[in-house]
Amino acid sequence: MNAIDNRDRRDRYAAGVMKYRDMGYWQPDYEPKDTDVIAVFRITPQDGVDPIEAAAAVAGESSTATWTVVWTDRLTACDKYRAKAHRVDPVPGSPDSWFAYIAYDIDLFEPGSIANLTASIIGNVFGFKPLKALRLEDMRLPVAYVKTFDGPPTGIVVERERLDKFGRPLLGATVKPKLGLSGRNYGRVVYEALKGGLDFTKDDENINSQPFMHWRDRFLYCMEAVNRAQAATGEIKGTYLNVTAATMEDMYERAEFAKSIGSTIVMIDLVIGYTAIQSMSKWARRNDMILHLHRAGHSTYTRQKSHGVSFRVIAKWMRLAGVDHIHAGTVVGKLEGDPATTKGYYDICREDFLPQRLENGIFFDQSFASLRKTMPVASGGIHAGQMHQLLDLFGDDVVLQFGGGTIGHPMGIQAGATANRVALEAMVLARNEGRDILAEGPDILAAASRHCTPLRQALDVWKDVTFNYTSTDSPDFVPTASVAG
Ligand SMILES: O=C(COP(=O)(O)O)[C@H](O)[C@H](O)COP(=O)(O)O
Ligand SMILES: [Mg+2]
């Protein structure tokens, strides 16, 4: 039944409770418009709940509906404003769950607001009783909507120009231990790591302004370290100063101070929320600063296939919201990261037009309408012995970040940084010479380590360290045939 039938039926607006599919939220013949937002959810209905009714309910509750018929619908262009579930496919290998496609008219969303988009799409529906679980797998964001966002303030191309570094991944390190260092000792770590060969160091997600180190101490000692390392090496260096704080006023104060003492980059955590992220993005754009986003907290809702929001959706939202860097996984390191799924995240950050790639979890063609590109960051339990795999997986436009894998080096932080820089340059050279770095990687590293003691020591300590566990979030292929309504 389509929306027109609904309007014509006298019983459509009789008071009482009616199935969502009968209220017009299931329209199997609906052809999404180019300007529609489309979401694909993985729905796991409660036992006995029809998947089509469940899909219609998600469409209803994420757009205009409530649990009972309301006559005030008739005061609106309700056919237009109702989200339309239009396709439901079984999830292969998972008999209890279904992929439901839902189209939303663009007029349902305020331009340029992730807060508004998410208040609809992930607002009420995740707690809906007829569903055991619900996951937002992917979204098609129409060009007309993408164009209402500013996107990354700096982007990959301009970041490289400011750094004057091209043709290789950038190298970074998260300062460790995460908590407890004084400002002066913290600055020492930054200096050693940058002097030894890294491009960036960074604050960890939970370093803000604690009793052991107030933020101004950290910023001042870090910038002294950056300036000294730049002078010593003749290269541009940076350190991501985490401005995450309790209020926007505090974050602006910290960001202004970072800029005033010469930092090129500031950092925020995902936990500050979408509106705060967009505000900091506007600030970074006005102030010619690179904005680094640490995705702290994301695994609470991205990691399980059956419930939550895929990180590929968060990555799309963050490119629109406008961050220059985003943590996107390592595949080989200590944290969750299926190779195919992770490739999808990297493509979202770096492509201007991303075609549907079901094997990478990408359900839709997606144009980014010339928004600048976000630099993905590979971080979490990586070391020099994996350099061939990292370069093969991620290519050049990535920051490879070795925290423990720099600071834990047996001969010290500078040696750890040198090991990573030499391993990277040896691998880039081998790749550029046309060698098969994946197959020959260990030999290439071993050869480079003959002339670089720090690299030899790094390989001796870490070369056998791997994190081989089953991924919790791999793509499920989607059949082309849909279930008839
Ligand atoms: O502190 C680290 C890594 O330190 P180390 O290099 O010592 O393991 C970061 O918080 C993680 O990368 C976050 O994870 P993700 O990057 O997946 O968001
Ligand atoms: Mg961390």
> Beta fraction of the residues?
5-15%
CATH architecture descriptor of the largest domain: Alpha-Beta Barrel
Mean pLDDT: 95
State the CATH topology of the largest domain.
TIM Barrel
Radius of gyration: 25 Å
Describe the secondary-structure layout:
Blueprint: H1 3-8, E1 37-45, H2 51-61, H3 78-81, E2 84-90, E3 98-104, H4 114-121, E4 131-140, H5 143-146, H6 155-163, E5 170-172, H7 183-195, E6 200-202, H8 215-233, E7 238-242, H9 248-260, E8 265-269, H10 274-286, E9 290-294, H11 299-302, E10 308-309, H12 311-321, E11 325-327, H13 339-350, E12 353-354, E13 366-367, E14 375-379, H14 387-394, E15 399-401, H15 404-407, H16 413-432, H17 437-449, H18 453-462
Parallel strand pairs: 4-10, 5-15, 6-7, 7-8, 8-9, 9-11, 11-14, 14-15
Antiparallel strand pairs: 1-3, 1-4, 2-3, 12-13
The chain binds ribulose-1,5-diphosphate and magnesium ion (MG).
Ribulose-1,5-diphosphate (RUB) is lined by residues 174, 176, 204-205, 295, 327, 329, 334-335, 379-381, 401-405.
